[in-house]
Amino acid sequence: MRHSKIILSIAIMLLTISAGFIAPKKKVVFFGDSITQMGVNPGGYICRLDSLLKTKVQGNNHELIGAGIGGNKVYDLYLRMDDDVLAKNPDVVVIWVGVNDVWHKVWGTGTDADKFEVFYKAIIKKLQARNIKVILCTPAVIGEKTDFTNQMDGDLNKYSQIIRDLAKTNNLPVCDLRKVFLEYDKQNNPENKEFGILTTDKVHLTDKGNELVAEEMLKVIAGF
Amino acid sequence: MRHSKIILSIAIMLLTISAGFIAPKKKVVFFGDSITQMGVNPGGYICRLDSLLKTKVQGNNHELIGAGIGGNKVYDLYLRMDDDVLAKNPDVVVIWVGVNDVWHKVWGTGTDADKFEVFYKAIIKKLQARNIKVILCTPAVIGEKTDFTNQMDGDLNKYSQIIRDLAKTNNLPVCDLRKVFLEYDKQNNPENKEFGILTTDKVHLTDKGNELVAEEMLKVIAGF
Amino acid sequence: MRHSKIILSIAIMLLTISAGFIAPKKKVVFFGDSITQMGVNPGGYICRLDSLLKTKVQGNNHELIGAGIGGNKVYDLYLRMDDDVLAKNPDVVVIWVGVNDVWHKVWGTGTDADKFEVFYKAIIKKLQARNIKVILCTPAVIGEKTDFTNQMDGDLNKYSQIIRDLAKTNNLPVCDLRKVFLEYDKQNNPENKEFGILTTDKVHLTDKGNELVAEEMLKVIAGF
Amino acid sequence: MRHSKIILSIAIMLLTISAGFIAPKKKVVFFGDSITQMGVNPGGYICRLDSLLKTKVQGNNHELIGAGIGGNKVYDLYLRMDDDVLAKNPDVVVIWVGVNDVWHKVWGTGTDADKFEVFYKAIIKKLQARNIKVILCTPAVIGEKTDFTNQMDGDLNKYSQIIRDLAKTNNLPVCDLRKVFLEYDKQNNPENKEFGILTTDKVHLTDKGNELVAEEMLKVIAGF
């Protein structure tokens, strides 16, 4: 009896250790703006993604870390990536930026498209130099109208295309939230509302918005 | 012989007079910005429309008058309508404005959507008070890219919709150049060029652009 | 005794009537933006000016009428001058506009300097054609910092100079509130605050601001 | 005879070597935008400064290196500082940036004041971590009018003050070109011209402008 208990204990210990070896914890940093800053709150997309990974992905072992700061543009990410991303030794970094680069043009401090690309590239390069897996996301929406009258749609599409092209060139997965949000709103916003479907205010996410983002990210992150 | 000559002369005179009574000349003023200012040049849309009316419309008797000034926004039209339009006693006024109201936002001096509507309404009201027929046009394009990445497309669609709604409310014909240009570019701009199809520089018309505008306007004006 | 009382009464009545003939009521319309809209409130500059005229100016007989609407730029004044000014048959019109023409450039819908001048001129011309006395005012401030770091100061000075030049050219009195506010803040804002001295929010008036405006306007209006 | 020649040769060699030891070449990198990019051209401020250092400063031994790129803002400098500055192992870096951060607000892609400061600080910190001497410069002008009507003056003064404060906090020398240009124009631009005194186009330097910058920089750099 005593022997069997000891053997069982050892077996459990070995299993635990081997599990550790088989599936070491994967650190995933979510690097972005206010949408990501709010993503770690209860109901936020990072919280939801954590639940989804735990319930839907067998043997999952991800540690999700939020690194979002309100008002951030692509060059703000570049500036703080040493402290807020590299210092955490992540295995995977999900970059989700672009809304403020476009939006802030309205009051004079957006980002030129060519510089958006240059800084985005520099971030990718620096992460890859550390053998960190990189996942790109396109900026979702600024306004949810479905009759093509959202003021910033032209630029959002342009900057999203820059990101898709960077993903292709660098052979990186892209979570195309722009596409997903446009399609969802087309189906679910028959009244052509400016916000209230996936966003509370044209930009920040409702519960449904957070759910949709979590589901989309799951598809890409589960594989890592 | 002499008698017959006199009778012929009288007959010709009478015919001329009666022709004058049957088809009195209709004055059409084209009221707009630089696109219309250039429209009176050889090859311009007003010139072409004049030819089309003469060759294609039986018994046509229109006098086309250009009243376009570069850089004009809707409130500029309102300011100069007494001198440049009403003073000419037109039968019909074609209003084509909106590109600068949207475009000039880039450097800080565009027109708010609500004020665009208010001034547009005021112009219509003042023309109708004089029993002048009014034809509305939507602003065509600022950039001809067909992948939805033209920066100003959202606003152009919004301001075009304001014009379409004003046409509906006031029971006025609308020459929907925005729609026509988008459809033409979709068919004829497979390389996703920013300009060079219907415009020389994203805004001002090529020969093909002038031709297309003339054809579209013909459909609306021929009826008057 | 009775006779003398009756004679006195008649004399007083006649004096009252004649006073009415000698000094008929002068209608003064204040034509402007939100600052003027708030000017008719208790403590507002129009209210204060009314008190000052009644207490300080012998034989005063002015009727002050507010015609301010929030967000108005010079072209908005032009649009509504028939309904809101001319329809009231004023003797004097005080034009105070310019802050929004400059300020709204920040989000894309300010007014170009050359068009500001053209519309301002058109308003003056239309008032003068009706023999209405016109008083011009320069826009006061957008920010009260005294170390020359208010973002819009360059343009405010430029548009104020346009107004001063229009006053000179048209031989009109100008109430130079820009100058008065700059001097007051220089003396009374040693801490270089952005607002809180003459404005509550960089633009709209504190009690002291309303008092200063009323005093300055008194100097110009008392003479009419 | 032969001996004396050998001794002379040795003496010259020793002198050369000792000169090298006494005054090792000091590398000065000029880090900035188009103004600095043009500064290395004949007549440019870097060229002129080189001449001044050679003729006016005894025992001078500076090597001046231009590192200016047109259109650069403070975050562009941060992005390329490894390649364009640190890789050159400079002893001194002169930072001259700010015009585009303010100017480009006009078309929507300027830099917020708080972010201007954050990036500027980050550049200083990274240079000081390498024991590189840092010299700060304030942005000179965007427009030379002397009646306080240059559109961007408020912001230029604000951003210049940020730089002066950073210099004070970090105990760094500052070449206050904003102050120098304002004073020079006040004395030498009685006609209130927008450009043509120190700039060819409101921003880029005339011969006189380059001369003035070279003279001002000489005062600060000679000491290093």
Automatic annotation (TrEMBL), chains A, B, C, D:
<keyword id="KW-0378">Hydrolase</keyword>
<dbReference type="Pfam" id="PF13472">
    <property type="entry name" value="Lipase_GDSL_2"/>
</dbReference>
<dbReference type="GO" id="GO:0004622">
    <property type="term" value="F:phosphatidylcholine lysophospholipase activity"/>
</dbReference>
<feature type="domain" description="SGNH hydrolase-type esterase">
    <location>
        <begin position="30"/>
        <end position="212"/>
    </location>
</feature>
<protein>
    <submittedName>
        <fullName>SGNH/GDSL hydrolase family protein</fullName>
    </submittedName>
</protein>
<dbReference type="InterPro" id="IPR051532">
    <property type="entry name" value="Ester_Hydrolysis_Enzymes"/>
</dbReference>
<dbReference type="InterPro" id="IPR013830">
    <property type="entry name" value="SGNH_hydro"/>
</dbReference>
<dbReference type="InterPro" id="IPR036514">
    <property type="entry name" value="SGNH_hydro_sf"/>
</dbReference>
